[in-house]
């Protein structure tokens, strides 16, 4: 079987490398040199974006803002299945239902930067079949944990784990003063490491996440509540925040001494 990966950026290359264990891989990209380099890495081939070739599966690794147009443009090239790895799910699933009603359809979201693979991969299996089964098996065989969700649950979760989290980290970076390393606490050091992780990416990718998902305003409102709280209100907010700790952390000693 052959899969066409549309988009030879970091996520497209990760997808091609992951699927190369089970498919012959072709790449298409606006930049022919980028597509050729990605294809060479998996002993595949590069094709033009407007190729007339058809493939068992087409996987779209395009920016979030381009996904609906990409589904429409490449639907006729997908003989049996279409997959996307854009990071949003409601829009591509709706578009694939419209343009590929009789073919297999899966939306995947690797919840990590390709350089940090393997990790968790969210999956909406909208119309399964033998080709998408092979895709999912290849992703799992690369030591990723694939878990099923639905578009609404996924996109709502991204408001917290992406848009909200990125807002909090970037806001800390913008607000932080330049202090000597000797003053670092365990918490500030961890936050600084998160700043390095977030700002080591591509601004356009983070911009599209912020544009696609709500969450930033909720973080800003929470920060305002903390900044304006009197003593009693702050303690109440502190206790409220503690209710959102992960279950595994609830057994920790809540009174461990001085704040860090």
SSE blueprint and pairings:
Elements: E1 2-6, H1 10-19, E2 24-28, H2 32-41, E3 45-46, E4 55-60, H3 67-74, E5 78-84, H4 90-99, E6 104-110, E7 120-127, H5 130-141, E8 145-148, H6 151-175, H7 186-198, H8 203-212, H9 216-228, H10 231-242
Question: Your description of this structure?
Answer:
There is one protein chain. This protein has 260 residues and is of the alpha/beta class. It folds into two domains: 2-149, Rossmann fold (3-Layer(aba) Sandwich); 153-244. It contains ten helices and eight strands. Strands 3-2-1-4-5-6-7-8 form an eight-stranded mixed beta sheet, with helices on both faces. Helix 3 (67-74) runs parallel beside helix 4 (90-99), helix 6 packs across helix 7 and helix 6 (151-175) crosses helix 9.
